[in-house]
Amino acid sequence: MRITINKKTSIFLTFLLLLQASFGQQSEKQEDNINFATFNHRSEINEGDWFATIEENLVCLQLMDSKNRSNPSFVISLCIPEKEFTLNGTNSFELKRAAGIIKFQGSFPNDRETGNFTYIRNSDFETFLNNEGINGGIDDSTSFFKLFLGNVSKEYVLGVKNHGYYPTIRQLGKLGIHNVDLEYINSIADTNYKGLELDMLIKFAIHDISIDYIKDLEKAGYGDIDANMIKKFAIHDVSVDYINGLTQAGYSNLDLNMIKNFAVHDITIDYIKGLSEVGFANLEPNMLKNFAVHDISSNYIQSLLDAGITDADPQSFKKAKIHGLTANYIKRAKANGHNTNELSDYVRLKIHGK
Question: Is residue 189 assigned to a domain?
Answer without folding.
Answer: no
